[in-house]
């Protein structure tokens, strides 16, 4: 199991007072607009703020394409066999849907966890790549997991400052926010981990192969299938499909399907629209007992107890992208 530790205060062997000052400035701007618990959607459709004033235990969920910056606090992320800790000044980028679990550590009323989130799509990334004339095909042909942690710099923090200044200016926000978002994507593409972005754009644009496999499962997770069926659909051998799929998502195709099913069933039950049996059928389970066993294995308790506990918890929102 790989465990990664990130801390901007020691990343270069010494403190960075300018970076810390910019981070504190953003924190101050954020606290002026965010006083409640949980996640708040701003007037900018793709921009949200999260605040938690207490520790939150590990909560399974799904990473969706997004860029998340921690302003204060620490988060622990389980992604496949990897454990990633990231702190104030670190950011997490996810470029495909990835089942994962997240935990907020050490938060309290005096020092709450605060994070910012930008949602994007691979099409938006591809658009920036083409307009900027960046080479789409990555030099490194080795597939990497579709998420990574990096460290913010002054230019990136300045873009967040500009975005936060638009929160109380609806007309300007409507026009300028999307331009700032494109600048952020460009900055990430040109940064140290830009090749991850490029690789995922390349995968997404392929007419067949691993990108098609991931998209097919996302659209058809309630349908039964075999790895052999998926291999034929994507014009790949079974061994190649399994190897590449696991490299990108940290798990095999059937496990990926199972986690998507269970996450969707959890969402349906949490919304109050379906009971356990109906939710199980809705996501493709024919046997409610099997559903309950696999649900308990992923979430740690029975569907009924899990949903009841979540409904009492202010952290009902998924934590992965906060």
From TrEMBL:
Extent of the signal sequence: none
Alphabetized InterPro entries for the sequence: Homeodomain-like_sf, HTH_AraC, HTH_AraC-typ_CS, Tscrpt_reg_HTH_AraC_N
Protein name: Helix-turn-helix domain-containing protein
Highest taxon listed in the record's lineage: Bacteria
Keyword Transcription regulation among record annotations: yes
The keyword Cytoplasm appears for this protein: no
Chain ranges of the HTH araC/xylS-type domain: 211-309
MF terms in GO: DNA-binding transcription factor activity; sequence-specific DNA binding
PANTHER family: ARAC-FAMILY TRANSCRIPTIONAL REGULATOR, TRANSCRIPTIONAL REGULATORY PROTEIN
Sorted UniProt keywords: DNA-binding, Transcription, Transcription regulation
SMART domains: HTH_ARAC
């Amino acid at each position: 199991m790989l465990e990664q530790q990130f801390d901007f205060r020691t990343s270069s062997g010494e403190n960075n007072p300018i970076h810390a000052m910019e981070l504190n400035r953003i924190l101050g701007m954020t606290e002026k607009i965010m006083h409640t618990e949980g996640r708040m959607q701003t007037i900018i459709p793709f921009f949200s703020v999260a605040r938690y004033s207490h520790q939150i235990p590990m909560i399974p969920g799904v990473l969706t394409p997004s860029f998340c910056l921690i302003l204060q606090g620490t988060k622990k992320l389980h992604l496949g066999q990897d454990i990633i800790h990231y702190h104030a000044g670190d950011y997490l980028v996810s470029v495909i849907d990835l089942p994962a679990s997240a935990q907020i550590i050490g938060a309290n009323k005096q020092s709450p966890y605060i994070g910012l989130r930008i949602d994007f799509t691979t099409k938006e990334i591809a658009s920036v790549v083409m307009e900027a004339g960046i080479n789409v095909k990555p030099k490194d042909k080795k597939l990497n997991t579709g998420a990574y942690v990096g460290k913010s710099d002054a230019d990136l923090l300045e873009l967040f400052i500009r975005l936060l200044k638009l929160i109380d200016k609806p007309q300007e926000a409507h026009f300028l926010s999307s331009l700032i978002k494109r600048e952020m994507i460009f900055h990430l593409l040109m940064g140290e981990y830009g090749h991850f972005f490029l690789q995922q754009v390349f995968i997404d644009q392929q007419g067949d192969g691993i990108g098609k496999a991931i998209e097919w499962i996302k659209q058809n997770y309630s349908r039964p299938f075999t790895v052999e069926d998926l291999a034929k659909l994507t014009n790949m051998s079974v061994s190649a499909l399994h190897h590449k799929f696991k490299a990108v998502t940290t798990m095999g195709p059937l496990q990926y399907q199972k986690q998507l099913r269970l996450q969707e069933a959890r969402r349906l039950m949490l919304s109050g629209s379906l009971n356990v049996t109906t939710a199980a059928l809705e996501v493709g389970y024919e046997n409610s007992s099997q559903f309950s066993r696999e649900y308990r294995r992923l979430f740690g308790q029975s569907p009924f107890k899990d949903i009841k506990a979540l409904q009492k918890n202010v952290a009902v929102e998924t934590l992965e992208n906060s």
